[in-house]
Amino acid sequence: ARPVATPGVSATEIRLGSSVPLSGEAAIAGNVARGIAAYFKYVNDKGGVFGRKITFTYLDDGYDPGRAVNNTIRLIQQEQVLAVFSSLGTSNNLAVRKLLNDAKVPQLYVASGATTFGRDYKKYPWTLGYIPPYSEEGELYGRYVVKNIKKPKIAVLYQNDDYGRDLLGGLKRGLGSKVKSIVASVGYDPTSADVQPQVTQLKASKANVLMVFAFGKFSLQAFNAVSRLAWKPQIFVNDVSSASALMAIVPQSAANGAISIVFGKDPAAPLWRNDKGIKLFQSILRKYGSSVNSRDLQDGYFTTGMATAYTMVDTLKKAGKNPTRQSVMNAATHLDEKGNPFVLPGIVIHTTPSSRFPLTQVRLQRWSANAWHPFGKLITARPG
Amino acid sequence: MALLALLEVDNVSRRFGGIVALDAVSFTAEAGEIVGLIGPNGAGKTTAFNVITRLYTPDEGDVRFNGETLLETPPSGIIQRGIARTFQNVELFRGMTVLDNVRVGAHARAGEQRPEDVLFYVNLHSVRHRSPLELPYATQKRVELARALASGPQLLLLDEPAGGLSHEEVEQLGKFIKRLRDDFELTILLVEHHMGLVMSVANRVHVLDFGEKIAEGTPSEIQSNPAVIEAYLGAPA
Amino acid sequence: MILELHNVEARYGPVKALHGISLRVGEGELVAVLGANGAGKTTTLRAVSGTVRRSGDVVFAGKKLSRRPEATARAGIAHVPEGRGTFSELSVWENLRLGGYTRRGNVKHEARRVFEFFPQLESRLDQQAGTLSGGEQQMLALGRAMMARPKLLLLDEPSLGLAPIVVTVIFEALEHMKGGDGMSVLVVEQNASLALAHATRAYVLEVGKVVVEGTGDELRTNESVRRSYLGY
Amino acid sequence: MRSRLWLELSGFTLLALAVAALPRFISDFRARELAIVGMYFIALIGLSILTGYSGQISLGHGAFMAIGGYTTAVLSVNGVYGHQIRDLWTIPIAGVIAGLAGLLVGVPALRLSGLYLALITFGIAVSFPQLPKKFDHFLGGTTGKILDLAKPPFGLATTPNNWMYYLTWGIALVLLGAAWLLVRGKTGRALKAIRDSEVAAASSGVKLATYKTLAFGISAFYAGVAGSLYAIANAYVNPDVFPIILSVYLVVGLAVGGLESLVGLIAGAGLIYFLQNHADTVARWINQLPALNLDPKQPGIPSMIFGVVLIVVMLLLPTGAGGVARRLFGSLTTRFYTRS
Amino acid sequence: MLVAAFTWAELAQQLAAGIREGAIYAGLALAIVIIYRTTRVINFAQGEMATFTTFIAWSLMNHGLSFWTAFPVVLAIAFAGGVAIERVVLRPVENAPVLTIVIVTLGLALLLNGLMSVIWGGANRQFHGPFSTRTIDVGGVPISVQDIGIVAVSVGLVVLLALFFRFTKLGLALRAAAVNPESSRLVGIRVGWMLALGWGIAAVLGAVAGMMIAPVVFLDPNMMQTILLYAFAAAVLGGLDSPIGAVVGGILLGVTITLLGRYVGFIGSTLKLPAALMLILVLLLVRPGGLFGRVAVRRV
Ligand SMILES: Nc1ncnc2c1ncn2[C@@H]1O[C@H](COP(=O)(O)OP(=O)(O)OP(=O)(O)O)[C@@H](O)[C@H]1O
Ligand SMILES: Nc1ncnc2c1ncn2[C@@H]1O[C@H](COP(=O)(O)OP(=O)(O)OP(=O)(O)O)[C@@H](O)[C@H]1O
Ligand SMILES: [Mg+2]
Ligand SMILES: [Mg+2]
């Protein structure tokens, strides 16, 4: 028996919760939570964490921050969760960061690459990100261009919000003194129907490098437009929009040679077809996933979910036999996880109290022959 | 003729595209008169009403009421000036009770008449909580009349009030209109195709044809006017 | 008999408007319906064309008549309703074309006949019907019904809003069509003297019931009819 | 109709009592949920005045809520000359500013009719979220503005959720009363007259421009108050907090509640909240049916459930909850002759 | 934002992009206009219906059918689907207030959207349209054959529709049923079927639009959501009941916002939507029925 009861922890159960979109335009990203749920069931089946089963409650917010706030309050007050875990979206997490920190509830492994979630821990000690921050990703591309492309003239297509601007800012930092080589940068608004006008404008700048810092269908349209305009720049495409399934359906004349970063295993990529991690992923999803179909087995959102869930289980184990919110937070800021089967081999998921970006190692990859081909060594995108 | 007419329609023209609905039409109505306005279909009678109540702006000419022009008054100000009307094709507020319809009539001139009293007067009190949609056509016309009376007007414009009434009912209506004029000290401008009614109540009649005024006179003069017979009445009834 | 009503009742929601009406119209006959304000005349016509909920038998040309208005129209009944029912957003010519909707082939011939009676319409073919004057719209409604060349014409106060000279024309036209085409007419009309002068037979309604019936002449000499509807 | 008046007054009193007593019987989080329902209710009252009474369809009321929400956020975060204003006092200001915006929209609306107006207001709902993105220095862009969590004032010993509940429903009852006084009197009649026949209304002396714009202004005021409360309850605003679909949901609430029924709107407000947040509950109900097994966690299923419920509700209550109530109790039946 | 300098070649290219974008809006706007013209309803499910039929086409082509074999099959399915939706879902509320009907279409949109996610998943799909993606060089400006095809189809459709409504009895009956169902029944028009037919035709138009658009914006359940907004705008701009207006309005809108977004720095991509709204509002204040629409005059 514990002296003081911790919310979300009982003799048999640990409660975690999340707010994700299951409806609306971003519904597909909700699969992250489904991947997590399947993984926790698998862990529970194997005995749970110190004998406790993980109960994972994820609620639909339709990608609306207002609803995310409401869900989060429901998770704390009604579902009595130990921690809020892997809620999705930058705004949705920003919206609840203050209230979670005020209530001293861990906001763990936020599913967003916004730099602030790892950087501003002094103000928000209960918050932690997960994936490499967008700004660092941009910086990597900048550094790569400086090193490998002679006389670069860079054009940037970016989503005109925090997300796109984070990437653009990082790129500028990575270019350092060569920042002048950006000859054109054009933002698009997510309410646009098609980004061809923006790409047209970028092409007119006579650039030889194109950064696609877009999201979902807009990056597809960007490749499409490049092909229609008969333009041949070296393309860099940011991680979030570079899933194999997407790259495979754009005009290959534009896609071939494109460069991106990678840290997770893409279940749709032939490279991992016989990988143990991916096989594990698929067997877990088949057995424990609810209403999954063959399509889902190829869906990277599920793998991302499982990767995060794997780290979460690690965290809970580290938090001790009688976890408290404080001990969970402590564990989360002292991670040193090797061998997460759902991320690239060799990646170490690492945090310290003053370095709160768990996943910062990535590789570069190039698209050709209908698949991504990683190249080079693991590189680190740790800020500062 | 009296020196000052209550209503003066002065040389008014109004065109719609190629159609000349009113062509330099002038006529007057004096206080206390019942004036008939008749003419073939499409002659411009309703248009004249619409010009007087400012729903249409005339292309030329002027309309004066109590000696002052009406053209500077917006449609919603007309009732303030003392002019109320009914509509040829019934324009009631379908989503409101009969009583509320009449109350709206008193909107701009509250206190002139009590809506309930008006409903008693026109014998509609028993249906005051019904929807006008459920009432027979002629009763609906009576609701319109009540709505117009609720503002306590000086001048009342009636557009075909006898529609849907049987012979006997038309006779009653004629008496009613005269009583109305006396009880409320009204001046009435009456558009009607029911000649029996016009002849029995009107002091004077103006005849329009194709937007032009073709005759004016007492009912009996008009009835025997060959131009009116030719254009409007047909073979003497 | 082209039309027979046996004990027809009709209701608006909970309100019963017809309490068992029986009437008939013979082939080539013009039958008039008289009655005070609210007696149920309009409802009787609606019951025939199916625009009000009815019960009881309606037999048309020997067959039970459908209760759906589009089917009655297709069976050969044209109804000029109270309030005219013109397509106010469409042009005059489109209104007339729609009148001939159930007819195959060219309707030019019918249109010419309509213009003969109502020359005013011909000069307004492109005008939006809703901007016509009240009487012109009434002419359009009649013209539209004529376009269908119906076997039975239901007229609800055809003279409403029409100049006296036009009213005479209409009844002449009805006389003409009835003779030439063998069309039958059931007409509700407040101008009783005119209606009875042309009617072969007539009915008088009071609160949803037939109270008097007879030939035109019989009714013209009926004391109470004279007092209420004829005024002499 | 004295009896009607008594009926309405006692109904109002009952409602007020119910509102006051309810928190004793429900969990703290339910109180928060009901508070949000109350916010939708306030916005719906406003929409009802505009659409139900004056007959102007607005598919853009979410934008007025957003104006209210942003007003509160700016006043309480940026403050005025650096003086932050307590959230409570921003509520009336938010209402007034939204109301002014409503008047502004009301003027061009005078020239638009029917579905054209509906689509233009829809355009406002679509366009509005772009403004905070454009003027991000002032309005926070997509990052949004983070407010302080609502706290009971004057050291009242109650939970934040209960406080939001009483605050919202207190305001809702006051505004309901005000709306009721408005629509049952001269103004309400004038608005309905305009809705039913503009020509006859004008000829009866009703100033169309004045009343129609006024309806827009009042209606936007209500939406602004609702938006302000919503911002306070969430302690956050950004463009996505007031999505396009919010405007559409409000119209849904109005249709479900019944165009002319102020109290029926509570049902509409409840439905909007319930459908957005309790798809899993509905799925559980649906799964009671044989041969059905919906997984509310599968992307797409919540939308399907929402869609189906909307359709079914509209098929069952084509004139809304208020319409049904009126058919059961009311004397005024407006039916067209080809119907029923 | 770093902006490239002005060149005539780019202007030409932007113009072409604008016209193509406008033609895309026009395709869906046409369907909206047809529903409005034949049922007096604004159909919020129009985008979802179009996407749904495009997914059907995608499935058929995935099973090995060529575009041109799948095309007529899809149109037939779309037509049947449109008719069925009207009969099953809208029929019961035929006489309800407009708002009720609009909400039913909204419910339908949500339902179809969810259904698509469940059946086909939320991921983007490649859709091979009928036109080559090759670009041809028009005076130094590369223009894709696909773009030319899209514009041609929009224009072709509107000509067909204009002829249909102007010269056929059925076209007239469709409009009549919408504006005055009671009187339509009295002249023998089967109003119920006319409404269903209207939905059928609109569904077919939506299907064509979907199959034209999908190759450009990639197929996913939300493909039409943004486009629907612009299509509404295009329809209002051109006049809600004018097919020609839909196409002219669409292209005008596409060109205007492309050029405004490109050359007016203050507007950029963020204020495109508000700018379009302002444009339309100003136009409506001058012409309350849109460019080609007619406002019904109601006189007393
Ligand atoms: N808004 C309008 N647009 C086009 N034409 C119009 C308009 N208003 C009236 N007209 C035309 O002006 C003429 C006069 O119409 P008005 O309604 O004044 O006739 P009226 O004398 O009242 O006829 P009726 O006895 O048939 O009611 C008609 O030919 C009508 O078509
Ligand atoms: N839409 C309706 N809803 C409810 N009741 C109605 C409706 N239409 C008519 N009634 C009622 O049915 C009865 C008969 O009306 P009907 O219209 O048939 O009379 P009518 O003889 O044609 O009268 P009028 O001479 O005024 O046209 C009346 O009591 C009327 O109140
Ligand atoms: Mg007239
Ligand atoms: Mg009648």
Commentary on this structure:
The complex is a heteropentamer of chains A (384), B (237), C (232), D (340) and E (300). Chain A has 384 residues and is of the alpha/beta class. Chain A contains 13 helices and 13 strands. In chain A, strand 1, helix 1 and strand 2 form a beta-alpha-beta unit. Chain A is globular, with a radius of gyration of 21 Å. Chain B has 237 residues and is of the alpha/beta class. Chain B has one domain: Rossmann fold. Chain B is built from nine helices and ten strands. Chain B has a six-stranded mixed sheet with strand order 6-7-8-3-9-10, with helices on both faces. A four-stranded antiparallel sheet of chain B has the order 2-1-4-5, covered by helices on one side. In chain B, helix 4 packs across helix 5 and helix 6 runs parallel beside helix 7. A two-stranded antiparallel sheet of chain E has the order 1-2. In chain E, a hairpin with a 2-residue loop joins strand 1 and strand 2. Chains D and E meet through helix 5, helix 6, helix 12 and helix 15 of D and helix 4, helix 7, helix 9 and helix 11 of E. One adenosine-5'-triphosphate sits at the interface of chains B and C. One magnesium ion sits at the interface of chains C and B.
Task: Describe the structure using short key phrases.
heteropentamer; B: 237 residues; alpha/beta; Rossmann fold; 6-stranded mixed beta sheet; 4-stranded antiparallel beta sheet; 9 helices; 10 strands; globular; E: 300 residues; mainly alpha; ABC transporter involved in vitamin B12 uptake, BtuC; two-stranded antiparallel ribbon; binds adenosine-5'-triphosphate; binds magnesium ion
Rg result of chain B: 17 Å
Mean pLDDT of chain A: 93
Helix content of chain B: 25-40%
Count of the domains of chain B = 1
Strand order of the largest sheet of chain A: 2-1-3-4
The low-pLDDT segments of chain B are none
Q: Which spans of chain A have pLDDT < 50 for at least 5 consecutive residues? A: none
Shape of chain B: globular
Give the strand content of chain B. Answer: 15-25%
Summarize the structure in short.
The complex is a heteropentamer of chains A (384), B (237), C (232), D (340) and E (300). Chain D has 340 residues and is mostly helical. Chain D has helices at 2-21, 28-53, 61-78, 87-109, 114-127, 130-134, 136-139, 160-184, 186-196, 198-203, 208-234, 244-257, 265-277, 279-288, 301-316, 320-329, and strands at residues 145-146, 236-237.
Describe the protein's topology:
The complex is a heteropentamer of chains A (384), B (237), C (232), D (340) and E (300).
Chain A: E1 13-20, H1 31-45, E2 53-60, H2 65-77, E3 83-85, H3 90-102, E4 107-108, H4 116-119, H5 134-148, E5 154-159, H6 162-175, E6 182-188, H7 196-203, E7 209-213, H8 217-228, E8 234-237, H9 244-247, H10 252-255, E9 259-262, H11 276-288, H12 300-318, H13 325-332, E10 336-338, E11 348-350, E12 361-368, E13 371-380
Parallel strand pairs in A: 1-2, 1-3, 3-4, 5-6, 5-7, 7-8
Antiparallel strand pairs in A: 9-12, 10-11, 12-13
Helix pairs in contact in A: 1-11, 1-12, 2-3, 5-6, 7-8, 12-13
Chain C: E1 3-12, E2 15-25, E3 30-35, H1 41-49, E4 53-60, E5 63-64, H2 69-75, E6 77-80, H3 92-99, H4 108-117, H5 119-122, H6 134-147, E7 152-156, H7 164-181, E8 184-188, H8 192-198, E9 201-206, E10 209-215, H9 216-221, H10 223-230
Helix pairs in contact in C: 3-6, 4-6
Chain E: H1 8-39, H2 46-62, H3 67-90, H4 98-120, E1 135-138, E2 141-144, H5 145-167, H6 169-179, H7 181-186, H8 191-217, H9 225-238, H10 243-263, H11 272-286
Antiparallel strand pairs in E: 1-2
The complex binds adenosine-5'-triphosphate (2 copies) and magnesium ion (2 copies).
